[in-house]
Give the backbone structure.
Amino acid sequence: MKLAVDLNQCENHGQCTFATPSLFSLTDEGLLSFRSLARDEYVSADLTEADAEAAAAAVDMCPMQAISLRG
């Protein structure tokens, strides 16, 4: 399972950082940290089972529905 973030859809509300701080963080400027790693879409490496379960909470909390799980 992988985590995907549509960086065009994301508006940096940060709800994912509250739901799953082990996977999501904001920069000092308040932007999702994945923005420095990708332009349009960030796709993670394979997640552990525990991280995939935690990421599911972030998927549910994202007000822009910019986060998804794949695989």
Remarks:
- The chain has a mean pLDDT of 96.
- Strands lie at 2-6, 41-43, 67-70.
- The first strand starts at residue 2 and ends at 6.
